[in-house]
Amino acid sequence: MAEADKPANLTYNESHWSNPDRPEGLKPYFKSKTLAEKGAWDFVAALPEDQKFELVTISPGLVMGPPIRKENFGSGGWL
Predict the structure, then answer these.
(1) In whole angstroms, what is the distance from residue 55 CA to residue 68 CA?
(2) Is residue 74 part of a domain?
């Protein structure tokens, strides 16, 4: 997150999002996760009131298990 996007007191909540269009870029994996979650929330928000449903998202800090790819990747360094 760019310094300009950080809250003054460094306390984050559901109103804070990664900026997928920031000038220095966002790695494809992180950008896709941000856009997918934002898309889900926007989809529910756009529904007529009688069709809205409760949406829950889970963003794990680390997923452990055997990798399915051979290339190096972020979480793979922890395994």
Answers:
(1) 29
(2) no
